[in-house]
Structure formats: structure tokens, C-alpha cells
Amino acid sequence: MARISTYQRDTVVTKNDKVIGTDSSGSITKNFKLEDIAGFLRSTNAVGIATQFNFKFVDSSRDVQTISFDPIAPGDTFDNVTSFVLSKFDANSNNVSEYLKTYASKQIVIVRLDDYSNFGLFDVASVVDHPTLSDYLTVTVTNRTNQGSFIADKHYGLAIFAEGDKHHSHTQGSASATWEVAHNLNKFPSVTVVLSTGQKGYADVTYTDSNNLTITFTGAETGKAYMN
Fold first, then answer.
1. Domain limits of the chain?
2. CA 63 to chain CA centroid, nearest Å
3. Could you list the pLDDT tens digit for every one of the 228 residues in the chain?
4. Which of 14, 88, 148, 225 suits 130 as a labelling partner, its CA being 20 to 30 A distant?
């Protein structure tokens, strides 16, 4: 084989270019397309990205590093998805279930790795062990926005969707001693009240749940409440 330095240098790299290597099954020299190498790295999580894991959607038999429906079924558009099943194990048989469980109560993005225009944003309600499949998790979600679908044998990246701290403002135009606020922040926010007089308001705040709260005054008031 000629010395590497004697080969002509190609400065325009394309997905169809090839490199030389040795197959793991023996000592046979083979060529590998860059497109295929990239596909391997993408589908196996061989190159890790913090907070992201990649899964292949399957509509027949489940395996490691797969995403599927329960019961198992063909692909569907993201706006119809309310839950799915994830393998607890990646392609290297590492159990990543505890990390995946941190997706609960967070917003995630799901994107097809060979077409980033195919994506969906979801609020994750829960990530729990599947009741009958010991090697799998059940993920329950609510769709926020989408432009895509699950397609059999395509690979998808799942990652926490980072966004700025969420906030909400409530305007109380009619005087009331009780302000009912639906902030939909999916958290228990801090609350600051500014009365219509320009003064800071002092009141009791009761959290109904992570998306609703009640502000109670000693008398009827108007103004604004800021939550973050």
C-alpha cells in the first residue's frame, strides 16, 4: 500500500467520500462511506450529546434503543401521540433508565435525525417503568407543537428542550378579593402583585396545582400579578 502522503488531498468532503479501514470481523481491509459512518454514530449514540438520547422507531419487535407504541403499532403523526415506550438500554447495553426518568415534568423535543424539519415539542407528564415489560419505560406526554411523525426504522433524537425561564402576567380589571390565575407554567412560581394604585400588593397565595393558583386579599383589589 502506498504511503498516505503520496495520495492526492481532497479538500471538498461529501457524504459519498470513502475512507479505508478494517472490518471488526477479521483483518480484511474495506472502504467505508462517510455517510454510513455518520449514520452509525447518529443511531448508536456513539457520539454523546448531553441530555439527548437517540432511538429507532419500530412497529414490530422491540429491541434495545428503540421507541414504540403500546400496543405496538405503525407510526403516527406527533399530534396524535399521548404516550410511547422507550427501551431502558442503549446499543451498548447500558441501562439509561434513571437518566431518562429525569425527563418527567420537563419539555422535550423529538426530532428525526435525518430530517430536522420533522420534529415535535412535548410536555412530559411521567416516565415510569412499564407495567409488564421489565426492560422498557412508559412515557406519557402532551403535544405542544409539531411538524412531523414517527416512521418505522427511522432514528429520532430525544432531548430536553431548553428555553428561558417561563413567566406569566395576570391582569385583574374588575375589583375582587380573590384572583383566580391559570398561569400554565407547569411549576409553582413566585408571585409579585402590583395594585392599580402602583403599590405593591400583599396577599395570600394558594397553589391549586402546578398550573393554577389563587391570590386572596383582605378586600377587593385591581391590578396585576407577575409569576416567574
1. 38-160, 168-227
2. 21
3. 566 667 777 777 776 777 777 776 767 777 767 566 555 555 555 444 545 789 999 999 999 999 999 999 999 999 999 999 999 998 888 999 999 999 998 889 999 988 888 999 998 999 999 999 999 999 999 988 888 999 999 999 899 886 656 788 899 999 999 999 999 888 898 999 999 998 889 999 999 998 999 999 999 999 999 988
4. 148
**Identity of residue 1:** M
Cell numbers 459519498 correspond to: 16
Please state, in angstroms and rounded to a whole number, the distance separating the CA atoms of residues 11 and 162.
36
Q: Please state the pTM of the whole predicted model.
A: 0.58
Chain position carrying cell 438500554: 89
- Side chain identity at 19, as an amino acid letter? V
CA distance 74 to 80: 12
